[in-house]
Amino acid sequence: MQTTAHGDHLVQLTRFPRVFPVNVYLVREADGLTLVDTGVPGGARDVLAAAADLDAPIVRIALTHAHSDHVGGLDGLRKALPQVEVAISARDARFLAGDKSIDPDEPQGKPRGGFPKTKTQPTRLLHVGDRVGSLEVVAAAGHTPGQVAFLDTRDGTLIAGDAFQTRAGLAVSGVIRPLFPFPAFFTWDKPTALRSAEKLRALAPARLAVGHGPVLTAPLPELDRALAAARRAFGEVGAEEADRVASGGA
């Protein structure tokens, strides 16, 4: 597992960096470490070793969404850390229990990708605006119905799950990058993903960390280009441009 530190608080752990990079993140807190996502099965030993190298315990696990490459390591880690808090959005928690239904007020597309039913069930259900240590929970639906992102309020790092990818170039979830198309293939609702991406950009993150690909520092120009590309790809003007047009181009 490849380990990369970013700033004072974030440590990126990457499995299969050259072929199919899958990132999880350790976030330093005063009481220990928050693990954001758990990756695919089989990585628990490496994650625990990385935490030991940081000389801090993992005290909580926060999940961006319920796809198999983000929750696949959950049961193994919970077995090793039986007291750890496990947090996921109330919406995506249903996938962990085997419920793949879509609510009447949601876009009616079928959820895509693998949603494993886990032995571990969350100890905490997250809602927008909640805090997980220093991380603020931010809505990021689209890739899945209940995906969330986490904004580190100390330094502006945004851990965005699969709302974006940076492997093969920064892209909004649902935009196909031919050299790494998988996040796009498994995106549930593209219009929702675009709206979420626009709202995440409005947070003006100082650093962008995602599930697949390198962490970006000062990502705003690249985010703007990725949003423009997504609007073209999805055949949409987008919320910001629609507002500009409606106000006469101001």
Provide a descriptive summary of the structure in words.
This protein has 250 residues and is an alpha/beta fold. The protein has a single domain, classed as Ribonuclease Z/Hydroxyacylglutathione hydrolase-like (Metallo-beta-lactamase, Chain A), CATH 3.60.15. It has 8 helices and 15 strands. The strands form 3 sheets. It has a 7-stranded mixed sheet with strand order 1-2-3-4-5-6-7. Strand 9 and strand 10 form a beta hairpin. Helix 1 packs across helix 3 and helix 6 runs antiparallel to helix 7. The radius of gyration is 17 Å and the shape is globular.
Characteristics of this structure?
250 residues; alpha/beta; Metallo-beta-lactamase, Chain A; 6-stranded mixed sheet; 15 strands; globular
Task: Write a concise synopsis of the structure shown.
The protein has 250 residues and is an alpha/beta fold. The chain is 27% helix and 24% strand.
- The span between the termini is 49 Å
In CATH, the topology is named: Metallo-beta-lactamase, Chain A
What do the pLDDT scores average to? 94
Can you identify the CATH superfamily? Ribonuclease Z/Hydroxyacylglutathione hydrolase-like
CATH class: Alpha Beta
Task: Give the CATH architecture.
Answer: 4-Layer Sandwich
- Report the helical percentage: 25-40%
How many domain regions? 1
- Determine the structural class based on helices, strands and strand pairing: alpha/beta
Query: What's the main sheet like?
Result: 7 strands, mixed
Tell me the Rg in angstroms.
Answer: 17 Å
The global form is globular
Strand order of the largest sheet: 1-2-3-4-5-6-7
> Into which percentage range does the β-strand content fall?
15-25%
Q: Which blocks of ≥5 consecutive residues have pLDDT under 50?
A: 238-250
H and E order: EEEEHEHHEHEEEEEEEHHEEHH
Number of helices: 8
The count of strands amounts to 15
